[in-house]
Write a structure and sequence with these properties.
Layout lengths: L12 E2 L3 E5 L5 H8 L2 H4 L10 H17 L4 E7 L5 E9 L4 E8 L8 H16 L4 E6 L4 H9 L3 E12 L2 E11 L6
Parallel strand pairs: 5-6
Antiparallel strand pairs: 1-2, 2-3, 3-4, 4-5, 6-8, 7-8
Helix pairs in contact: 1-3
């Protein structure tokens, strides 16, 4: 499948413990629970959510990016046992062969291998179902949890992009990671 065909049908992914789903308005309450937590939002370029309208807008934007604009695929993450959204993971193609991923997870699910499993599912899907040859991810240097999960998934640190991200009156460095298809071992 070519990357320009990604959006004809939304690819739900199922792993041993997870179900990666298309965003729906039903998820607004779960999104608010995730992004109103400062521990989750502290490495984002947005403040923690303070009202449900912010979560509603967040869900609408994810639906728009995936369905209407076809600029990426953003999955809502649910466990197979629960009927609630606990995070998300997005894939944003830069062009036919390169893409970027980004992710977030509700705090009470940290350190349980959930995001490692989600990244594995997304990586496998794109390396074997599309022409993707390189997947990138960036995070702030002090986001040790994100760095650890990327490294567990075989991503290699390439360097620091100095003062690359901006929020309010602050600038932040970002660490660039990448994973190449030719180096990928599922």
């Amino acid at each position: 499948m070519k990357n320009d065909q990604l959006f004809a049908e939304f690819p739900e992914l199922i792993t041993e413990r997870l179900h990666l789903l298309e965003y729906k308005p039903d998820y607004i309450g779960d999104v608010y629970k995730i992004l109103s937590d400062e521990r989750v939002s502290r490495f984002e370029t947005r403040d923690p959510f303070t009202n449900i309208e912010q979560a509603k807008r967040y869900v609408q934007v994810r639906e728009f990016i995936t369905r209407e604009k076809s600029e990426g695929i953003i999955w809502a993450i649910s466990t197979n046992e629960q009927n609630e959204i606990i995070g998300d993971i997005g894939y944003y193609p830069h062009h036919l062969h390169n893409a970027e991923i980004g992710f977030k997870l509700r705090y009470d699910f940290w350190n349980k291998g959930i995001m490692t499993e989600a990244i594995q599912a997304v990586t496998q899907y794109f390396f074997f179902q599309t022409e993707t040859k390189r997947i990138e991810a960036t995070t702030r240097p002090n986001n040790k949890a994100a760095r650890r999960v990327l490294e567990k998934n075989g991503f290699v640190m390439e360097g620091i992009m100095r003062e690359c991200e901006h929020h309010k009156d602050e600038s932040f460095d970002l660490v660039m990671y990448s994973l190449l298809k030719r180096e990928y071992a599922p």
